[in-house]
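Re: weekly structure request thread

Next one in the queue (130 aa):
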Amino acid sequence: MLKSGIYGKYRGTEYEITVDMDNNVRVKTEEKGKIDHTFEDLYNNGVYSKKVNPGELMDCVNIDIYGIIQREKVQILQEKENEFQVATGSLLVGSNLNLPRVDRDTWLGWVPKSKVKLIEEKSAINPEDL
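Done, posted below.
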């Protein structure tokens, strides 16, 4: 599965990092091997999270993933075994790639992975700025 979003290390283990509605910084994971009794499954959906102090986080990065198809830049939304779901807000790109138009400003479709060049951009983040 592609990693996209904010990630960092908490006590030597990498987690996805989020900020909740109360501006609390939380680490989260679906991997039970990464949790202890201090993590909670707030919504009973198999995602475990824990409120942390930003000063406890190390090596924080923001990861953005996008794809290039026929020299056109597209968003990567999901992946299946052999396909990526891609989207664009550009009429020209959507038309050039024969993507179905799903609303006024969105073209969305599944494309074989072999036709997509993945680009991953990482930028360092200061956890105190989250």
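The chain has a mean pLDDT of 96. DSSP finds one helix and ten strands in the chain.
Next request, please.
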